[in-house]
Amino acid sequence: MANRHRGEIEAELGGRRYTLCLTLGALAEIEHAYGGEDLLAIAERFEQGRIRATDAIRVIGAGLRGAGNAVTDEDVAAMQVDGGAAGYLRIVADLLKATFAVEDAPPKNP
Description:
Order of helices and strands: EEHHHHH
Oligomer: single chain
Number of strands: 2
Number of domains: 1
Distance between the termini: 36 Å
Shape: globular
Radius of gyration: 14 Å
């Protein structure tokens, strides 16, 4: 079972349930895939709705590997998801939210 406090999510890919997690190593993998572009620049591009199929493959693949699954990006590209393209984008959005969300953080003392 995924632990959102550790940035984990669960998703069904190719008819199988997986845990995904963007660990520090997975985030470094994503930075490397984008030529060393920093995470903030990548996240800003995604927030603007500029997500390509290749982006979804990279983020989902990194999340799967970050959670210990032995899959390649080619494996991810061949996996089917309920909802088609929108289903892949929901997984990416959920994974990024679990990784970077601060809404569960305790309130700061005034």
